[in-house]
Amino acid sequence: MWQLLMMLVVEALRSFGAVEVPAEESFSQVPAEESFSQVPAEESFSQVPAEESFSQVPAEESFSQVLAEESYSQVPAEESFSQVPAEESFSQVPAEESFSQVPAEESFSQVPAEESFSQVPAEESFSQVPAEESFSQVLAEESYSQVPAEESYSQVPTEESFSQVPAEEGTSSLSGPCLSW
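^ that's the sequence the OP posted. Answer follows.
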């Protein structure tokens, strides 16, 4: 822009005859080797050779194109975490080491009947206790609701009855088996 202004000024002065600038010193005709708008390619910043250009770094030095053996996104299968061999994989553990497929002899959900808590044999079961050990079916000889007549309070024999105590024993010296029991 300033060259255009200088050219106009020089032309104006030349037309009036005040100044006559030689062609070799004219600002509008600067030699190509000194011109800023026509810098040679070897010194130009916009045309840097490929070997020095940052946008065209060779593949062997490029960070975006790292060789496969050093790349983290393309790790070989033998070192990859997402493709671990079956013998080292946690999601595909062999049956003999798997927690979800434990053999029956070690499984907690399939414990054999002889060790199972939900299928305890009748002789050890609390809900099916044999009659001889059951509290709800106690034998008659130990039952409080079915006491034999000879020990019953409501059916005391006449000879031990309080309302018919023999006169010779009286109420003050009563010592029948009913009281001692």
